[in-house]
Design a protein that fits this description.
Rossmann fold; binds beta-D-glucopyranose; about 45% helix; alpha/beta; globular; 8 helices; single chain
Length: about 260
């Protein structure tokens, strides 16, 4: 199957590291024009943009804090001014936050995680849909997590944000389905990125994590990026309103692999 994003204009949030970086590179390799959003790591964003340009693709860098609605409005306007419209939004920017049980949580830290992981995608989708609705075309891919379904003690702000984002996908898919706009969630499991480096670098926590994955290994960023590329492409034209898990079956209650 030939996955082609030729001429598609794609905005990827949180693209200066982790999954966003590889998604941006993969989309560019398939012919897309890229809006590479970053929050604070300008040097990393510039390096990724220059890699993309050196491979013959077009890219603009857009600094923005996705948890700030005004800042998102400016970013989307700049993107549309540059490319004349928008075909793809990947709501990728996200953080795990600091581990804290509910009664020990710091309120402003809890709010920050929800603002970045849930309000951010809402702000971005809101601005981008204004254009997609006029165009009557487009795809929004929300990067959720296995934790849209699996509870995770100590990360209540993260789990509620991802569960909320999953419901935002379904609700938006209803709102724009008749216009031919697709909204999808991609839910990664444990992928080897900076977000969980502290876990996979430590042999003890690494072993504990691997036990939770029937496939017996962490995912690679490219495995998520290739799935993302398929989902936003016309090859996935009948997929909308649902979640695709890219998780080595983590979602499958792997503790039941042995006994019950
Ligand atoms: C989190 C990772 C975690 C994985 C599996 C992801 O959503 O960002 O830190 O390793 O879920 O628990």
């Amino acid at each position: 199957m030939d996955i082609n994003l030729k001429g598609k204009r794609a905005l990827i949030t949180g693209a200066s590291s982790g999954l966003g970086e590889v998604i941006a590179k993969e989309f560019a390799a398939c012919g897309a024009k890229i809006g590479l959003n970053y929050h604070s790591h300008q040097d990393a964003a510039e390096k990724i943009a220059s890699d993309i340009r050196n491979n013959g693709s077009e890219v603009i860098i857009l600094q923005s804090d996705v948890s700030d609605g005004k800042s998102v409005e400016v970013m989307v306007n700049d993107f549309v001014k540059k490319w004349g419209g928008i075909d793809i939004l990947v709501n990728n920017a996200g953080i795990d936050g600091t581990r804290a049980l509910v009664w020990e949580s710091d309120i402003s830290e809890w709010e920050r995680v929800v603002k970045i992981n849930l309000f951010g995608p809402f702000y971005c989708a809101r601005e981008v849909l204004k254009h997609m609705v006029n165009q009557k075309s487009g795809v929004i891919l929300n990067v959720t997590s296995v934790h849209e379904n699996i509870p995770w003690a100590g990360y209540s702000s993260y789990t509620v944000a991802k569960a909320g984002l999953s419901m935002l996908t379904k609700t938006m898919a209803q709102e724009v389905g008749s216009l031919g706009i697709r909204i999808i969630s991609l839910a990664p499991g444990a992928i080897k990125t900076p977000i969980n480096k502290n876990v996979w670098e430590n042999p003890e926590t690494f072993a504990d994590l691997i036990e939770k994955i029937p496939l017996g290994r962490l995912g690679e960023r490219e495995e998520v990026a290739k799935t993302a590329t398929f989902l936003v492409s016309d090859s996935a034209s009948y997929i909308t309103g649902s979640t695709l898990f890219v998780d080595g079956a983590m979602i499958d209650y792997s503790n039941f692999t042995h006994g019950g």
